[in-house]
Prior knowledge:
5 strands, 6 helices, CBS-domain, alpha+beta, single chain, three-stranded mixed β-sheet
Amino acid sequence: MRTVEDILNKKGADVAAVARDAAVIEAARIMNERRIGALVVTAGDQVVGIFTERDVMNRVVAANRSAETTKVADVMTSPCACCRSDTTVEECRNVMTEKRIRHLPVVDAGRLRGMISIGDLMAAEAAQRQQTIEYLHEYLYGRTR
């Protein structure tokens, strides 16, 4: 069964993060520049929350707050759901579905290792299905190459 470690090995462990005392406008700029939907919020080496596009819309824009003066800590989602590198893809999908979230920071022994998204899970599951299809095709019809 595939794990989060398999996904991180393929996509890399680069994580976009922002300090909890950063202004929302700074976090939004990072998300926009990197074309991502979420940032891990940190205090030193600790994961203290997650800041998502949904947080911007619901807690800043809809609440008529200033992106320049509002701190990420005031509008982030905390605590945030996390997973470990040995968590299965299926477990992650279940957590994301149950909690209605799209991103999970990967934390091992208190250390941030990466972040996975629902898109990463879907790609991993599609690759697994394709591999199964190819295996079954070879089993039924023999190798064609």
